[in-house]
Design brief:
single chain, about 300 residues, alpha/beta, Rossmann fold, five-stranded parallel beta sheet, four-stranded parallel beta sheet, 11 strands, globular
């Protein structure tokens, strides 16, 4: 793999923010040259896994075959109090800041072994967690909210997929097939394979972050889509199916099929989905670039801590 996208990520400014596809390729370039931490929480019989939004979904992916209880900043204490079987906690936060700080501090009240998965060696949440229980993952410099290298690295640590194979698939199999008329649509419908159903929430959240109300996304499995998701049709909604071709929903002019590599895990699914979103971003006005600086000023006030438009 080249390092071209990492170089772009290392050099961009607020005026030259790259689209999400660059962050995806840059993340895969990074994971092709660094080692990822190894973690094993099998000593927990029923852990509580806590995260906010993307981190929460990442937690569900990491513990999808574990008898875990999942929570976010709003309900983690009630989950502890309602579930006496909980015997440990895994807190997931790329920054280790924002709500993770309050969560980590609150967890000190409970006699539970607590771990932090983060990408920030100076994570404020880490002040309340034993240092040997903090697992630090590598990351790239990225725009705020992209969180591509951060959570993708955690997922790869579990799935053990080959980042070079995913990179090659994106650049050689997917890139040339992406439609050039995506700007004609203000709504997208992602149909994901059942085995990767958790990725749906990541895709919808990414649309919220990049487009707000300007461009929307719905994401479901084929089976979920069969349940009255398309009662009201729209010629402005574009259907993108992954792994299985969609010949039912939408019409020939509003369908795009994206194959998946023969051996795929959640890392490939997320990377490919984000890569496609990057091209949707590229073909629409630069909503994110035009507004992220204003937003991070507001976010800094909301969280009472500095939130930068570029996460170093």
């Amino acid at each position: 793999m080249s390092q071209r996208n990492i170089e772009t990520l290392e050099q961009f400014t607020i005026e030259t923010i790259p689209n999400l596809d660059v962050a995806v390729l840059g993340a895969l370039e990074l994971f092709g040259k660094v080692s990822l931490p190894v973690f094993d929480f099998n000593h927990f019989k029923r852990p509580l896994v806590i995260g906010s939004l993307n981190a929460a979904v990442t937690g569900e992916i990491l513990f999808d075959s574990h008898d875990a209880v999942f929570a976010d900043e709003s309900d983690f204490e009630s989950k502890i109090q309602a579930t006496p079987e909980i015997d440990g906690v895994v807190l997931i936060s790329a920054s280790g800041g924002k709500h993770a700080v309050r969560i980590a501090e609150t967890l000190k009240k409970y006699p539970l072994e607590t771990w932090l998965l983060t990408n920030n060696e100076d994570a404020r949440a880490g002040h309340f967690i034993e240092s040997e229980h903090i697992i630090l993952f590598p990351k790239n410099r990225e725009p705020y909210t992209y969180n591509t290298s951060t959570y993708l690295g955690m997922i790869l640590s579990k799935t053990k997929e080959d980042p070079a194979q995913i990179y090659e698939f994106l650049t050689k199999e997917v890139h040339a097939t992406i439609p050039q008329n995506l700007a004609s649509f203000d709504s997208f419908y992602f149909i994901v394979p059942t085995q990767f159903h958790l990725a749906s929430a990541l895709f919808m959240t990414k649309f919220d972050e990049l487009f707000g109300s300007k461009v929307s996304c719905r994401a479901f499995t084929f089976e979920q889509t069969e349940h009255a998701k398309t009662v009201v049709p729209s010629d402005k909604e574009f259907f993108i199916s992954f792994g299985e071709e969609n010949k039912v929903f939408g019409n020939d002019g509003t369908r795009f099929f994206v194959p998946l590599p023969e051996i795929s895990g959640y890392a490939a699914m997320v990377a490919i989905g984000y890569y496609i979103i990057g091209y949707i971003q590229q073909q629409h006005p630069p909503y994110f670039k035009e507004n992220i600086a204003t937003y991070t000023k507001l976010a800094s006030q909301l969280f009472n801590q500095p939130i930068n438009s570029i996460v170093e």
